[in-house]
């Protein structure tokens, strides 16, 4: 089993990246929007899930071990395969998904890609009592609780998402950076991008 990979990003494709790990190439499928975190020529560290099927072995990659764990739990739900589970992971943070399942919030679950009412109900039924360990992860929204309601957080998050980052990553960046009163959206985005790049570089 391949649990993680660290290597040089040499190629991007639709929903995947190719890693050069000591002159061995690995194709790793990642969530929509995640490719922006791993530019070609940069080092990447990915937690991986190895899926074996009749026509070959497929690797799925995640930024955190918690994302991989939730991905694995989603696979036990009838109607959710690896590709759909990856889309779900890319659409919402681990804390948000766990909270929705544990609170039986099927309305929220139905907003996720590929999830209808019946699948949302199955997610609650199959996973509600199996996510206690992941429930300990604090949602990023909690870290933003001290930001004034009239601040530009929503605009900054929307801009970062448009640039290819996931909402969870955008929230994490905003929570981490120092912001000045009256700072413009453009200035905050620049600071957040610098922080995100620094985090990416630290993995090298």
TrEMBL record:
<feature type="region of interest" description="Domain III">
    <location>
        <begin position="149"/>
        <end position="204"/>
    </location>
</feature>
<dbReference type="GO" id="GO:0000400">
    <property type="term" value="F:four-way junction DNA binding"/>
</dbReference>
<feature type="domain" description="Helix-hairpin-helix DNA-binding motif class 1">
    <location>
        <begin position="107"/>
        <end position="126"/>
    </location>
</feature>
<protein>
    <recommendedName>
        <fullName>Holliday junction branch migration complex subunit RuvA</fullName>
    </recommendedName>
</protein>
<comment type="subunit">
    <text>Homotetramer. Forms an RuvA(8)-RuvB(12)-Holliday junction (HJ) complex. HJ DNA is sandwiched between 2 RuvA tetramers; dsDNA enters through RuvA and exits via RuvB. An RuvB hexamer assembles on each DNA strand where it exits the tetramer. Each RuvB hexamer is contacted by two RuvA subunits (via domain III) on 2 adjacent RuvB subunits; this complex drives branch migration. In the full resolvosome a probable DNA-RuvA(4)-RuvB(12)-RuvC(2) complex forms which resolves the HJ.</text>
</comment>
<dbReference type="Pfam" id="PF14520">
    <property type="entry name" value="HHH_5"/>
</dbReference>
<dbReference type="GO" id="GO:0005737">
    <property type="term" value="C:cytoplasm"/>
</dbReference>
<dbReference type="Pfam" id="PF07499">
    <property type="entry name" value="RuvA_C"/>
</dbReference>
<keyword id="KW-0238">DNA-binding</keyword>
<keyword id="KW-0234">DNA repair</keyword>
<dbReference type="GO" id="GO:0005524">
    <property type="term" value="F:ATP binding"/>
</dbReference>
<dbReference type="InterPro" id="IPR003583">
    <property type="entry name" value="Hlx-hairpin-Hlx_DNA-bd_motif"/>
</dbReference>
<dbReference type="GO" id="GO:0006310">
    <property type="term" value="P:DNA recombination"/>
</dbReference>
<dbReference type="InterPro" id="IPR013849">
    <property type="entry name" value="DNA_helicase_Holl-junc_RuvA_I"/>
</dbReference>
<keyword id="KW-0347">Helicase</keyword>
<dbReference type="InterPro" id="IPR010994">
    <property type="entry name" value="RuvA_2-like"/>
</dbReference>
<keyword id="KW-0547">Nucleotide-binding</keyword>
<keyword id="KW-0227">DNA damage</keyword>
<dbReference type="InterPro" id="IPR036267">
    <property type="entry name" value="RuvA_C_sf"/>
</dbReference>
<comment type="function">
    <text>The RuvA-RuvB-RuvC complex processes Holliday junction (HJ) DNA during genetic recombination and DNA repair, while the RuvA-RuvB complex plays an important role in the rescue of blocked DNA replication forks via replication fork reversal (RFR). RuvA specifically binds to HJ cruciform DNA, conferring on it an open structure. The RuvB hexamer acts as an ATP-dependent pump, pulling dsDNA into and through the RuvAB complex. HJ branch migration allows RuvC to scan DNA until it finds its consensus sequence, where it cleaves and resolves the cruciform DNA.</text>
</comment>
<dbReference type="InterPro" id="IPR000085">
    <property type="entry name" value="RuvA"/>
</dbReference>
<dbReference type="GO" id="GO:0006281">
    <property type="term" value="P:DNA repair"/>
</dbReference>
<keyword id="KW-0378">Hydrolase</keyword>
<dbReference type="Pfam" id="PF01330">
    <property type="entry name" value="RuvA_N"/>
</dbReference>
<keyword id="KW-0963">Cytoplasm</keyword>
<keyword id="KW-0067">ATP-binding</keyword>
<dbReference type="GO" id="GO:0048476">
    <property type="term" value="C:Holliday junction resolvase complex"/>
</dbReference>
<dbReference type="InterPro" id="IPR011114">
    <property type="entry name" value="RuvA_C"/>
</dbReference>
<dbReference type="GO" id="GO:0009379">
    <property type="term" value="C:Holliday junction helicase complex"/>
</dbReference>
<dbReference type="GO" id="GO:0009378">
    <property type="term" value="F:four-way junction helicase activity"/>
</dbReference>
<dbReference type="InterPro" id="IPR012340">
    <property type="entry name" value="NA-bd_OB-fold"/>
</dbReference>
<keyword id="KW-0233">DNA recombination</keyword>
<comment type="similarity">
    <text>Belongs to the RuvA family.</text>
</comment>
<feature type="domain" description="Helix-hairpin-helix DNA-binding motif class 1">
    <location>
        <begin position="72"/>
        <end position="91"/>
    </location>
</feature>
